[in-house]
Design brief:
6 strands, alpha/beta, 6-stranded mixed beta sheet, 10% strand, 278 residues, single chain
C-alpha cells in the first residue's frame, strides 16, 4: 500500500529523477550508476516481448548483474515510474537526454552533443510532411536516424506523426543506430515507452551499417539489436508475414506492393528512396 501511494505521488519531474539517482551514487560514480540503470531498464523492456534465445538469456543475465550492483529493485522501479510519468506529462521532450546532459555524462571523446529538441521538432515537421501519402501508397513508412543518440529526432518524428490521420504505432517504423551502447539504450527505452514500433541498433553506422530489408534487419557481428515491444504486435508481425509471401511470389497481401521502401532520413530534409545495403 505504501509503495502504491509513493507511485501515485510521483509527478515525473527532473528533481524527482535526480533525487533518486543521487541515492544510487553514494558509493559509485554517476557514470557507473547511469549505465547500470539504463541497461537494467532496457533489458526488462526487451525481455518482456523479445524471447529470441540469443537476446533473452544474455539480457536476463545482464539485468541480474546490474541489479547486484545497484542493490535496489524498489529504487529502479521508482526511476522507471518517474520516466514514464515525465513522458506522459510532456511527450514533447527528450527526458533521458536532458538528464544525461545535466549530469555531465556526455562522452566528448565520441563527440556527443545532443541536438536540442526544438530543432528536432522543426526537422521532423519539414521531413515527414507528406508521410500520409506514402502510407497510403505502401501501408507504412520507415523513419531512420543513423546517429540517434538518446532519440530526440525520432521522438520528435513520433510526435509529428500524431498529427497524421494514421495511427503512428501501426503505420510508422522507427529505426535508429548509434555507436554508444548506453545512449542507444536510452533511445530504445524512450521510444518503447511512447509505444513506437521499430528497433535500435548498437553499432558504428559507418563501418557496421544496418543491412537487410527494413522489416527484416540483419544482426551482424559487431551489432546488437533492440526490438521495441510494439514491433512484436500483431499488426507488424502480420505485415512481415505478408511481405514474406509477396517476396516469394505469393498473392496474399493486404498492402500495395512497392519496388522500394521509403525512408525519411534526418541528415537532410529531402525524402530518400533507399534500401539497406546487402
Amino acid at each position: 500500500m505504501g509503495r502504491a501511494r509513493r507511485s501515485e505521488a510521483i509527478q515525473g519531474t527532473e528533481k524527482e529523477f535526480l533525487d533518486v539517482f543521487n541515492r544510487f551514487c553514494r558509493s559509485r560514480s554517476p557514470w557507473q550508476v547511469w549505465a547500470d540503470l539504463i541497461s537494467a531498464i532496457a533489458c526488462s523492456l526487451s525481455n518482456a516481448t523479445d524471447r529470441a534465445q540469443e537476446h533473452f538469456e544474455a539480457r536476463e543475465k545482464e539485468y541480474a548483474q546490474c541489479m547486484d550492483r545497484l542493490g535496489s529493485v524498489e529504487m529502479l522501479a521508482e526511476i522507471l515510474c518517474i520516466i514514464v510519468r515525465a513522458l506522459e506529462n510532456e511527450p514533447e521532450q527528450d527526458f533521458l537526454g536532458k538528464m544525461y546532459m545535466s549530469l555531465n555524462l556526455a562522452n566528448h571523446w565520441k563527440g556527443q552533443f545532443f541536438t536540442p529538441y526544438g530543432i528536432c521538432r522543426m526537422m521532423s515537421q519539414m521531413t515527414v510532411g507528406n508521410a500520409d501519402r506514402k502510407i497510403e501508397e505502401q501501408g507504412y513508412i520507415s523513419i531512420c536516424d543513423p546517429a540517434c543518440g538518446a532519440g530526440a529526432t525520432l521522438i520528435a518524428a513520433a510526435n509529428t506523426m500524431k498529427e497524421s490521420k494514421y495511427n503512428f504505432q501501426n503505420h510508422v517504423l522507427f529505426v535508429g543506430q548509434d555507436v554508444d551502447r548506453v545512449v542507444a539504450q536510452m533511445c530504445y527505452i524512450q521510444l518503447s515507452l511512447m509505444g513506437c514500433a521499430g528497433y535500435i541498433c548498437v553499432g558504428n553506422t559507418i563501418t557496421k551499417p544496418l543491412t537487410g530489408l527494413v522489416l527484416f534487419p540483419r544482426e551482424t557481428e559487431g551489432q546488437e539489436m533492440w526490438y521495441m515491444p510494439m514491433f512484436q504486435s500483431d499488426v507488424w508481425q502480420w505485415r512481415k508475414i505478408f511481405h514474406s509471401l509477396g517476396s516469394m511470389g505469393g498473392t496474399v497481401t493486404t498492402e500495395k506492393t512497392v519496388e522500394k521502401e521509403h525512408f525519411y532520413m534526418f541528415f537532410d530534409f529531402e525524402e530518400k528512396e533507399a534500401q539497406y545495403g546487402d
